[in-house]
Amino acid sequence: MFHIYCPYCEEHREEEEFHPKGQAHIARPEDPEACSDEQWGDYLFFRDNPRGIHHELWVHAVGCRKFFNITRNTVSYEILETYKMGEAPRFTAEHPEGRPAETVAAERTAAGADKVERQQGAKA
Ligand SMILES: [Zn+2]
């Protein structure tokens, strides 16, 4: 038994409460009608299978039921971080030791400010 940190509940919970949902950061093509069969097939069926840093989509199924991302090392199975949807990971294949925490925090603050502006824009 091990524990996973849910970034929404802001606490560690038993792994049985969570379900993996595959590779993270897969963007749906903006105009599916403009895709070739090969592009659409790649989007639907083909996933990366890297050795080392991998970003995965998980859901806190028996908790807040929210989706979030996990950065995991596929060699050691170590979970390096969890982060909310829309946030950028600190650990990447280019930065396996982690980007500076200040840089990531500034990005997340800026992304949060942008989200507030968009929500306010939607209400107006
Ligand atoms: Zn949760």
TrEMBL record:
Organism: Halomonas urumqiensis
Pfam family, one: SoxD
Tree of life domain: Bacteria
Lineage: Bacteria, Pseudomonadati, Pseudomonadota, Gammaproteobacteria, Oceanospirillales
GO MF, any single term: sarcosine oxidase activity
InterPro entries linked: SoxD (IPR006279), SoxD_sf (IPR038561)
Region Disordered, residue ranges: 92-124
Chain intervals with Basic and acidic residues compositional bias: 114-124
Coiled coil start-end: none
Record-level GO BP terms: tetrahydrofolate metabolic process
The protein's name in its UniProt record: Sarcosine oxidase subunit delta
